Amino acid sequence: MTNHQIDTPPPPFIDRGLPECQCPADCGGRPEAMLRLAPSYPVVRDDGRMKPPEHPHAPTARGELVFDTLNQRVGAFMDRQRDLVYLRPERGGPEWEVDAKWLVRHS
Question: pTM of this prediction?
Answer without folding.
Answer: 0.60
